[in-house]
Write a structure and sequence with these properties.
This is Ubiquitin-conjugating enzyme. Belongs to the ubiquitin-conjugating enzyme family. Keywords: ATP-binding, Nucleotide-binding, Transferase, Ubl conjugation pathway. Pfam families: UQ_con. The protein is α+β, with helices and mostly antiparallel strands and 219 residues long. The chain has a single domain, classed as Ubiquitin Conjugating Enzyme, CATH 3.10.110. Helices cover 25% and strands 23% of the residues. Strand 1 and strand 2 form a beta hairpin. Helix 3 crosses helix 4. The radius of gyration is 19 Å and the shape is globular.
Length: 219
């Protein structure tokens, strides 16, 4: 086995599905390029990851990988890097980890006009081995007062569960999470106490959401 892997602890989310906890660290985005591939009899990929230095030069970080789904992950990484440069999602960033290409650090800016506006929320995204047949795992790291996001950061979003399709792009998933901040749905809660607050006194619940945004999501 040539890539560094982490053991996940399963945790439940809404509708009885399972989600994984992920260790996270902030890293800058970087492009990925294929240097070489091995014969089909020994599937592996050699990736080159340029890193900028203080002198404006770059050094290369090489990773030799051999696991199921590597071609899919590589294609996603290249697509992600391309989209960030050519067609970035407004208010969203995503950066793959250096030591495990299944992990991504994500930031989502709170939408204007919502209680979460001007907030910068940190999330983590993990691609399971079953991806793209199974959805990615996404979790908030920044505390947020939202009826569809619980205290562990788990998200109740249909495309992360039964409405997932292999045709969906990661970019679409992150845009959907951002849209959820604009339209909290207390009728399908993952945080029952927050949902109750939103139903009984939406104005006051939005006030608390704004306070949490200022306290936990300000940079």
């Amino acid at each position: 086995m040539w890539c560094r892997c982490t053991v996940f602890e399963s945790i439940g989310d809404c509708c009885g599905t399972r989600q994984s906890g992920i260790d996270s660290a902030d890293k800058a985005p970087h492009p990925i390029s294929v240097l070489a591939s091995s014969p089909a009899s020994s599937p592996s990929l050699l990736l080159r990851t340029p890193h900028g230095s203080s002198q404006g030069k770059s050094t290369a970080f090489y990773t030799l990988l051999s696991r199921p789904g590597l071609i899919t992950i590589l294609a996603f990484l290249i697509g992600l890097a391309h989209n960030q440069v050519a067609d970035p999602a407004p208010g969203i960033t995503a950066a793959p980890h250096d030591d495990n290409l299944r992990y991504f650090d994500v930031t989502i800016q709170g939408p204007d006009g919502s209680p979460f506006q001007q907030g910068i929320f940190k999330l983590e995204l993990f691609l399971p081995e079953e991806y793209p047949m199974a959805p990615p795992k996404v979790r908030f790291l920044t505390k947020i007062y939202h009826p569809n996001i619980d205290k562990l950061g788990r998200i109740c979003l249909d495309i992360l569960k039964d409405k997932w399709s292999p045709a969906l792009q990661i970019r679409t998933v992150l845009l959907s999470v951002q849209a959820l901040l604009s339209a909290p749905n207390p009728d399908d809660p993952l945080a029952p106490d927050v949902a109750k607050h939103y139903k009984e006194n939406e104005k006051d619940a939005q006030r608390v959401s704004r306070e949490w945004t200022q306290q936990y999501a300000s940079e």
